[in-house]
Amino acid sequence: MPPVGETLREVVERLAPLERRAGSPAEHEAADWIAERLTTAGAPARVEEAEFLDGYAPLIAKLSAIGAAAGVAGLARRGRLAAILGGVGAAAAIADDVSNGPRVARKATQQPQTTWNVVAEAGDPAAERTLVVMAHHDAAPTGAAFDQTLQRTMAKLAPGVFERVDTSLPLWWPVVAAPALSALGAATGRRGASLAGIALGALATASFADIARSPIVPGANDNLSAVAALVALAERLRAEPVPGVRVLLVSCGAEEVIQGGIYGFAERHFPQLDVERTWFLNYDTIGSPELVMIEGEGTMVMEDYHWRSFRDLIDRVAVREGLALRRGMRARSSTDAVIPSRARYPTATLVSFDRAKAMTNYHQMSDTPENLDYGTIERAVALTHALLGALAGDEAASGVPSGR
Asked: N or C: which end of the chain has fewer CB within 10 A?
């Protein structure tokens, strides 16, 4: 087995130069290469096509503009009904879209596109228990909104206070509040609410328009760090097999449009994955200095991942193996993990932070291979391998509910 660090660097450096926008030829090329590399690592892999609906920045920019326009209309008495309807509709559509709801606006305005998921099989193929280890291989656009200066300044000015805050700021709330304020101002005749809705809506429109036209980042941390971990885990399982657990290594496409390819994976594979004998471990941005297991996520309403006992099991394994792992954090962003969690699979997500509780170089052009902390990725691989041993034994009973 080659050194883990050598494998990690090989994968990241090979894929980072590809501009892996969701649904692009480069994303397809990346998926094909990952499948070949996993197969070489001892985990036979295939590429599966999946449909996704584009959205995120262009869609949210348009909905925010509708909300701002509603605020303007609400300043005139004759435009109040249209302002109320437009503001409420835009607010509801944004909240629905970013929280992985029915996504009415996407379905009404977007045509399905193709993305590519990679699915590899490793471990014990005859085992009744399955661990699904997930990553994603598409990359995100950058934009001024992702500048981390404010967060890092807050960490320096009030380190004690900052350290106690374990839930990230609800950055989507103001985006939804903008059209809601426009509707409120129109309904009550309060010009202040309408003006606030106009201002916030204009800011959101400009911010998401900027993201929509910005270049795609190299995505070494987000999320080639995770793809590299899948390959390294496949190589370790070939060298050190763990009987009793089947492993699916899954790299989804189109995650950066706020979940895309994971829906296709769920439709195709969830019917064959027994919720009583399957666990999901999601890797997302694991190349910062500190390995972190987040407890849940939620852009609008916080959702802890299903079945805390699985996360407790991961924590016990980390302690036993002497692998530093931070707990207690919750994210106001969204990852592919929310889909299996809502389907009642025991779910956990590994991410990584630096001292400012920031994912290093997140959605920035500086997210390049040389800026990764490869030691953190190695710890994630080691933790997962040890977790498989726990799931194969009696400890699995504490990581999955009985009688569900």
From this structure: C
Start-to-end Cα distance in the chain: 40
Structure tokens at 264: 């296709």
Continuous H helices in 75-137: 80-98, 104-109
pTM score of the predicted model: 0.95
> CA–CA separation, 282 vs 296, rounded Å?
12
Virtual torsion, Cα 211, 57, 180, 199, nearest 10 deg: 20
Residue type, 351: V
Averaged pLDDT in 10-residue chunks for the chain of 404 residues? 89 98 98 98 98 95 98 92 97 98 96 98 96 98 95 89 87 97 96 97 98 98 98 98 97 98 98 97 98 97 97 98 97 96 98 95 98 98 98 68 40
Q: Report the chain's C-alpha Rg in angstroms.
A: 22
Pick the CATH number of 4-52+114-140+216-398 from 3.40.50.300, 3.40.1170.60, 3.40.630.10, 3.30.70.580: 3.40.630.10
